Amino acid sequence: MAITSIDIDQDELKTAKQLTGAKSNRETVDLALRTLIAVRRQPAAVERIISRSFEPEQIDAPTITPAGTRRAERL
Fold first, then answer.
1. Angle at 42 between CA 36 and CA 45, to 5 degrees
2. Is residue 69 part of a domain?
3. Would you say which domain of life the source belongs to (predicted)?
4. For a surface tag, which of 10, 32, 43, 64 has the fewest beta carbons within 10 Å of its beta carbon?
């Protein structure tokens, strides 16, 4: 991993750290980058989901409950 030196507004970093519960500045910045990437990719992912087509046998397929799942968790 490359080491990068950047200037960050300390008030914004402190606020982001409090909001996320991150323990370090590095964790806060890492989370911010991952969140930005996910948010920017989300519209494309939603469009892919919307455009999917399913065959009747897929729609009517039985639901499979993973082993070890309690009944109360499924309700």
1. 145
2. no
3. Bacteria
4. 64
**Cα(38)–Cα(45) distance, integer angstroms:** 10
Tokens 């402190």 correspond to what residue?
A: 14
Tell me, what's the pLDDT at 72? 54
| Helix 10-20 vs helix 25-51: crossing angle, to nearest 10 | 60
Mean pLDDT in runs of 10 for the chain (75 residues)? 91 96 95 94 89 83 79 53
Say what the pLDDT of residue 71 is: 59
Domain count, the chain: 1
